[in-house]
Each structure stands twice: as C-alpha cells, then as structure tokens.
Automatic annotation (TrEMBL):
It comes from the Bacteria. The active site is at 246 (proton acceptor). Substrate binds at residues 184, 188, 222, 241, 345, 350. This is Glucose-6-phosphate 1-dehydrogenase. Catalyzes the oxidation of glucose 6-phosphate to 6-phosphogluconolactone. Residues 195-495 form the Glucose-6-phosphate dehydrogenase C-terminal domain. Residues 19-193 form the Glucose-6-phosphate dehydrogenase NAD-binding domain.
C-alpha cells in the first residue's frame, strides 16, 4: 500500500485530524496548542477538520469551549482571537467510549461528510491497551483507507512481548508505513540540528569516533514529581518511561552512521543499526553498570515536597524514579567508548542535554603553563535539548596578556533563541505536520521499538529478582550518590551545562 501523493504545492494536504482521548491532558496541553500554532502560520488547509473523540458528554460547542480554555491557559497572552475563531470553526466532538463498540458509526458519518480527498489522521491519545481495539473499531466502520495514518503515543508496551502484541494488533489494520509512533524528543530543534551539526560540517565528523571521543553523556532530568501520572508511572518507572524511548533515541542520533541522505527510511535504518549494536547486558553487567533510585522528601524550588511513596500513597512501592547506566555500542566507530545515560524526577534542575567529551591532546605542549586550571580541560560539545535549546563548544584558549602562557577554558555558544529571529516551534507542531504530510523520518519504526525493548529487558529482569531496592535520594538533588560512583570509577565525572 502506498500513501497518496496528491498533496498541495507546500506539501500539506487537507486533513481530518481525529483525536481519540480529546479531553485528556496530552490533547489539551500539547496537541491543541500545536494545532493552534499551525493555524496561526496558515498551515492548516481549507477543509481541514479537528474531530475530538472522548467519553466526555460534550457537543461541538461544549468541546470548543474546552479547547478555548486550554488555549487561553497554555498560549496565554500571545493568543490571537482571530486565529482562535478560525481554529474553533474546524472543531467537532463525538461522545464515544474507546473500550466499547457503541456509537462508532457516528464517526463514520462525520468523516464521510468531509472532503473525500482529505487525509485521515487518527491520533490515539489513550492508554496503549486501547491501541489495538481502537484500530479494529476504525476498520470495522470502514474509515481506514490508503491515505489513513495512525499516531501512537509511547509507551508501546511494557516489555518486548507486550510491544509486539500492540504492534501486531495495530498492524492488522494499518500498514507499517501508515503507523507513526511518536517520540516528541525527536521533534525538538536541537535534536534535529544534531544531524546537521554532524553531517553538514566537515570539521566535526572526522572527530566523531573512538579515536577522538572519550565518552558521551546523555541527561534528562526533571524537577517535577509524578503528579497526576502516579498510577501510570508506578507501573512503569524511569527505565520504561524514559530510557527505553527518549534516551535511547538520543543515543541513536549521536552514534548513527551517516545515511545516504536524510529521508523517509534512511535515518531509521541507521538508528536501528545502533540499537542492534548495543552490548547486551548480562546479570553482572546490570549489577555493575546500572543504578536505580527513588526520590525522598526534599526541597523543590525552595518548597518542601513529599517523597515518591508519600506522593503516590503507596508505601510499599519499589518503582524507580531515577536511572543511571553505562552502555557500549559495539561497532567499528564506537568500540571502547562508554555512553553514560541518566534520567530522574525531582532533580535539582530541569534539563535535557547531550555532552560529547573529546579526548585530551596526546602530548602536553604547555607543561609549565600558568593559571587557575591545573591542566587544560577536555574539549566538550554540549547539546542542550531543553529548556534553552542550543550548543556550546568548550575549548582551551590563551588568556591575553604578557608574560607566561595562561590557559583558560572558553566556550563558543549557539543559542537558537538569539541566533535565529524566529519563534522556536514546539516539537509537536513539527511532528503533527509531518504526520499529515506522511513523512515518517522522525518517528519510530516497529523494528526500532522492539530492538530497544530487547536491550532493556535484561535490566528489567535482573532488577525484578534482586533484593536491592532503588537507592533513596533527596528531592531537589542530582540523584543518588551511586550514580556519581558509576562514572567516577572510570575516572570521569558528570558534566553540567553552564546554562541553568
């Protein structure tokens, strides 16, 4: 089955964009604002409709009021009333329960009333257990055609077997090229710019290998606790929630080989090779190279906050809210280069970054230099994914002045906010438009998802049979001390960005 090519000159076809789970947090916090921003940029074509599906007892006007409130809350003072009116004119709502067959014919009728050439996008902002049943409902009512696309939010399963079950169920209705498994990290400007930085600049790519790179660090830390996601999170934990998808995807983009060109399948082919090259974790590897933690009471932004178990109301929970681990990519380019990953909730700062640490010069030409630094610091490339997207290249320079040579670390800074006179779009804005265009480059393919689970599963199995519980760390800190020990035993330390 091939996707239709009858798209407009700018690559954006007319679309019926159906959101299943339309009154949930994801829909109102991320999807609706993203569609508003694209409306403001005139990227939604005439005839495009937004169809909300939920169990909430709302008619079209009621749902439009909910959407308007969400826009006012999440867009704020930048909200343009004219754009709001245009967007709300596209909005409809149907009361349906995704778990039952009743009433789905209403969606069939509504879709048939629209543009017969419109691309149909079904965004499943629901629990993964409903992905398969919803797809079968759509098939039963006859609304899945060659132009249809379905978007799946992570997590895709909780282990390899459940991921395969979800993929099998969805794949019975949609061809693989119609399935868009979304990871919003891949839509961020700095993540996409990583490919450009590596492959469009000839000075850097020759250094991007084990000869010149000492190690790589990937950090995704959050200051918030589990909040209203407690029920989901306690059955998931940081390894499933963050490492299996977000952090491994970032690792893939750092480690992948140059594709022939940046296109529909070439990037995903190269990412898959990285996942397949990850050194499998034995039980001893898990014990030595992974750390799991759970936040206790502490301070967040100067305010006392409860521990994870207190916030959750489950004193016996053994779920981890922090993971640090050491991984290796066993191929020609990266042999012997460790990749250190860490992620956690209730940390001391909210930041997502990649740090590539280069090896020190092979010969100390300035053994008697003066200055505050005992020796030149290693060159490092900081790629900041959020909150302030940009890059810093840390170098060593001579401090101006007469007399002896004084070496001083300096940095070349690129801030997207100041370098480009344009608003940085939210990741969902780009990804939703890519779905409508039918461009899968920034989405995960089935074999990627399953390869990631294949690597993560031995960690989950080992943790499930070891008596050790997650190590406690105070809220508002950088995690358990064992995470520092993990990297320091290799003679390295966690790098922190200069931008807080």
């Amino acid at each position: 089955m091939t996707l239709p090519t009858s798209e407009l000159a700018d690559g954006m076809p007319t679309c019926d964009f159906t959101i299943v789970g339309a009154t949930g947090d994801l829909s109102l916090r991320k999807l609706v604002p993203a569609l508003y921003r694209r409306e403001a940029e005139d990227q939604l074509r005439p005839g495009t409709r937004i169809i909300g599906v939920s169990r909430s007892d709302l008619d079209d006007d009621g749902y439009r009021a909910v959407v308007g409130e969400a826009l006012a809350h999440h867009i704020g003072d930048e909200l343009d009333p004219v754009v709001v009116v245009r967007l709300l004119a596209r909005v409809h709502h149907l009361v349906l329960d995704a778990a039952t067959p009743d009433g789905w014919h209403l969606l069939h009728h509504l879709l048939k009333e629209g543009d017969p050439d419109a691309v149909r996008v079904f965004y499943l902002a629901t629990a993964p257990a409903l992905f398969g049943p919803i797809c079968h409902r759509l098939d039963e009512i006859g609304v899945v055609d060659p132009s249809a696309r379905v978007v799946l939010e992570k997590p895709i399963g909780t282990d390899l077997a459940s991921a395969r079950a979800v993929n099998d169920a969805v794949g019975q209705v949609f061809d693989e090229q119609q399935i868009f498994r979304i990871d919003h990290y891949l839509g961020k400007e700095s993540v996409q710019n990583l490919l450009v930085t590596r492959f469009a600049n000839t000075f850097l790519e020759p250094l991007w290998n084990s000869r010149w790179v000492d190690h790589v660090q990937i950090t995704v830390s959050e200051t918030l606790g589990v909040g209203e996601r407690g029920d989901y999170y306690d059955g998931s934990g940081a390894l499933r929630d963050m490492v299996q998808n977000h952090l491994l995807q970032l690792l893939c983009l750092v480690a992948m080989e140059p594709p022939t060109y940046v296109g529909r399948e070439t990037v995903r082919d190269e990412k898959l090779k990285v996942l397949q090259a990850l050194k499998p974790m034995s039980a001893d590897d898990v014990d030595r190279d992974t750390v799991r933690g759970r936040y206790g009471q502490g301070l967040a932004d100067g305010v006392a906050v409860p521990s994870y178990t207190e916030e959750l109301g489950r004193p016996g929970s053994a779920t981890e809210t922090f993971v640090a681990l050491r991984a290796e990519v066993q191929n020609w380019r990266w042999a012997g280069v460790p990749f250190y990953l860490r992620t956690g909730k209730r940390m001391d700062r909210k930041i997502s970054e990649i740090v590539v640490v280069f090896k020190e010069p092979p010969h100390a030409m300035f053994p008697h230099h003066e200055g505050t630094q005992p020796s030149p610091a290693a060159n490092r490339l900081h790629i900041q994914v959020q909150p302030d997207e940009g890059m810093q290249l840390h170098m060593t320079a001579k401090e101006p002045g007469p007399g002896g040579i004084r070496l001083r670390p300096v940095s070349l800074d690129l801030s997207y906010a100041t370098a480009f006179d344009a608003r940085m779009p939210d990741a969902y804005e780009r990804l939703l438009m890519d779905v409508i265009r039918g461009n899968p480059t920034l989405f995960m393919r089935r074999d990627e998802v399953e390869a990631a689970w294949t690597w993560v599963e031995p960690i989950l199995r080992r943790w499930s049979v070891t008596p050790d519980r997650p190590r406690r760390y105070p809220a508002g800190t950088s995690g358990p001390t064992a995470a520092a020990t993990l990297i320091e035993r290799d003679g390295r330390t966690w790098q922190e960005s200069d931008h807080d």
